[in-house]
Amino acid sequence: MGGVRAKYEAKVASGALTADPVQAEAAALLDGLAARLANQPKPGFFSGKPVPVRGVYLWGGVGRGKSMLMDLFFAQAVTKPKRRVHFHEFMAQVHERLGVWRKMTDAERKRSPWRVKSAGDDPIPPVARQIAAEANLLCFDEFQVAQIADAMILGRLFDQLFQRGVTVVATSNRHPDDLYKDGINRQLFLPFIKELKDRCEVLELVSARDYRLDRLVEAPVWYAPLDATSAAALDKAWDRLTLGAEPQHCVLTVKGRKLEVSREAAGVARFTFEELCARPLGPIDYLAIAGTFHTVMLEGIPLLSPDKRNEAMRFTGLIDALYEAKVKLVASAEAEPGALYPTGDGSFEFERTASRLFEMRSKDYLAQAREDVDLGDLSEN
Q1: Which residues does 113 contact at the CB level (< 8 Å), separation at least 6?
Q2: Among 256, 288, 184, which residue's Cα sits nearest to residue 271?
Q3: pLDDT tens for each residue of 41-74
Q4: Cα separation of 221 and 102, whole Å?
Q5: Is 381 part of a structural domain of the chain?
Q6: CA atoms of 1 and 82, how far apart (whole Å)
Q7: Do 185 and 218 belong together in one domain?
């Protein structure tokens, strides 16, 4: 089966990756963690609470290979149960579970298998107990903290998870010391940062090269017309940008609604035009996508016309959200941007969208770092 380092070196040997000493160091670090997890003693009746194995926190700029390495580790880790999840999705689920517990009656809480004695009406211990039962190993992609609602519960939640023996692996664009930077009441968040650094070995993936950018600019990012050739090219672009990582399914929570993402890997989400523009989605949904993924693949953009006015308006809203956040777009379409909406009511207004689509194909745009998106209260129920 081989370890992370072996899988990484195989990708280098095949030409899928360029050898990078810091990535190799991170692979070896993750192999060490996998070995410690494999040899972790099971808690017995007299051994007290389980002791978590110290995890790993990989951080650095976009395109440094963090998600790819974590996915290699997750595939190799023998720990069960285990879970790999985007941090935004995880926190949305946490808030949902906290809300469910708060709404329960005292009688319902007493009957719950997740109740924790002496916790009273505090929802964090039972929710942490439930999460720990679902995963001894939690792998978080895109660990970031921007909302005060998240910041104020993370310390207590993760303290409970660590007490229950959960090991954490995370990727992030920020050093732990910069999480929730300049946030309201940040001093209350500092103990969590200290515990996170105590519980995880922190490694920066430093590189002068943005490998994601290399993979974006080595081939076109707009494929037209819609035919077997463009479909094959988009599949190849997916493999190139995700380095062959196993696609995951995730759910974004937007104002209590579920936004399904059927395929995502290594910070790249893949959608069809119908999924994003033929359904009743709006700007708030597109902001959630832009704030979660650094690259969006969109397949099957049709020719637009007044008959597809609603779809065209949603498509414009999507492109505006991606453009403002500097999210990268790889797409297949029936025509070039300037010919997508050639005539009819709405075609004049679409010219601005076409202009943005052309700019989003430029190397200057592709080289820009993704902007942080203020997700505000999108996860509120």
Answers
A1: none
A2: 288
A3: 766 555 566 777 999 999 987 778 888 899 899 9
A4: 47
A5: no
A6: 18
A7: no
